């Protein structure tokens, strides 16, 4: 069974490592709270000084730390292991119990304040890293690590990365601190988010590296100007390509380098939504004038015009037309022309409002199913927002 030896004691604050204005010294927090009476009494300072030089042995389960087949699915067992360490890392005499109680209060203060802490990595197991917090040992699950580690050394397994981090100081945030259940959980991702999320905005374009690929989309790590990967966003399956995508894995593979655009930032939930397809011209928001060659030199696979009298509405359009005519402000709906395109975007019927400006109160809609596209002229006194709301109401009524 592998044994890790750790020196108990305080660790420097991240303000010295990260140079972040929000990562101020925790002493300022203590001076403004009742915790100063618990953590900053002179007798405590003296005892802490002698205590920090003591050395204790921390044992980690060999089955989780050394097994090559261990995965992040072991995080529940690993968390229990870390909880056991919290119970045993400090001698159970009165002074040390009082110190540990004060450190739990400090952990809760970090949790509620969102301050960043510089935590020393004491060891690791199958589910994550063991992080020193004063006299306590907490747990950092592998999914809460910054993507910079795996992107820097993509050939290494998560356990090889964890081993290389032992003894280093990581910027972390406390995301759970419950003394009763002995749960002290950290996140490096949240700490890195605090520093770098302010440097991004909707519309920014990044080079990125594909991380995990799921049925619903792919997670992409964003590469910052210094070459490091700090933040991760999700490219939903609907934002991978303008073509119909049945399986994300047919297009994206872990480790691929891609270019992405930020289309949404949820700062409350620390989430970034990305798009690959929006870096290409959107074929669905263009009128047929742009995709039909003006010199009539289109090949057999290109879009082609048809006489209005011979156009048969796509399945489902008749019902939509009838409902649209029931909306106030819509006077006429008719198909102006149709064509066939090379790509298949969706087998289901889709309606899109063109970006083209209105002409004589006429707006253009595009209806698409498979390769077939029909251009619809909508005569209305409504503005573009009014048309969008009318379409939404109609589509809710039509089965």
Automatic annotation (TrEMBL):
One of its GO terms (biological process) is maturation of 5S rRNA. SMART domains: S1. One of its GO terms (cellular component) is chloroplast. Residues 114-189, 203-277 form the S1 motif domain. Gene3D superfamilies: Nucleic acid-binding proteins. GO terms for molecular function: mRNA binding; RNA folding chaperone. InterPro entries: NA-bd_OB-fold, Ribosomal_protein_S1, S1_domain. This is S1 motif domain-containing protein. It comes from Corchorus capsularis (Jute).
């Amino acid at each position: 069974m592998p044994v890790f030896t750790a020196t108990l004691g305080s660790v420097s604050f991240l303000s010295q490592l990260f140079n972040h204005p929000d990562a101020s010294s925790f002493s300022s927090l203590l001076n403004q709270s009742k915790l100063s009476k618990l953590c900053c009494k002179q007798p405590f300072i003296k005892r802490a000084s002698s205590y920090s030089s003591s050395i204790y042995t921390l044992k980690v389960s060999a089955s989780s730390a050394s097994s090559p087949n261990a995965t992040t699915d072991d995080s529940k067992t690993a968390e229990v292991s870390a909880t056991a360490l919290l119970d045993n890392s400090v001698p159970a005499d009165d002074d040390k119990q009082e110190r540990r109680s004060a450190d739990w209060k400090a952990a809760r203060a970090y949790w509620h304040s969102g301050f960043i802490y510089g935590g020393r990595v004491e060891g690791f197991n199958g589910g994550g890293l063991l992080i020193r917090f004063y006299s306590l040992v907490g747990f950092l699950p592998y999914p809460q690590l910054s993507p910079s580690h795996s992107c820097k050394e993509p050939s290494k397994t998560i356990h090889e990365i964890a081993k290389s981090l032992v003894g280093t100081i990581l910027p972390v945030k406390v995301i759970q601190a419950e003394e009763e259940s002995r749960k002290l959980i950290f996140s490096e991702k949240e700490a890195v988010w605090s520093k770098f999320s302010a440097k991004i905005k909707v519309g920014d374009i990044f080079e990125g590296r594909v991380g995990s690929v799921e049925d619903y989309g792919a997670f992409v790590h964003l590469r910052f100007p210094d070459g490091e990967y700090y933040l991760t966003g999700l490219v939903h399956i609907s934002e991978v390509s303008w073509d119909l995508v049945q399986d994300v894995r047919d297009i994206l593979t872990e480790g691929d380098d891609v270019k992405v655009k930020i289309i949404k930032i949820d700062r409350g939930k620390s989430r970034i939504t990305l798009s690959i397809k929006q870096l290409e011209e959107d074929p669905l928001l263009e009128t047929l004038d742009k995709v039909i060659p003006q010199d009539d030199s289109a090949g057999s696979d290109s879009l082609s015009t048809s006489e209005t009298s011979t156009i048969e509405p796509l399945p489902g359009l008749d019902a939509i037309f009838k409902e649209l005519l029931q909306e106030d402000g819509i006077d006429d709906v008719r198909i102006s022309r149709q064509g066939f395109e090379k790509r298949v975007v969706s087998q289901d019927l889709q309606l899109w409002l063109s970006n083209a400006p209105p002409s004589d109160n006429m707006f253009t809609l595009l209806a698409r199913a498979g390769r077939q596209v029909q251009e619809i002229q909508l005569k209305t006194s409504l503005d573009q927002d009014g048309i969008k709301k009318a379409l939404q109401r109609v589509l809710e009524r039509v089965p």
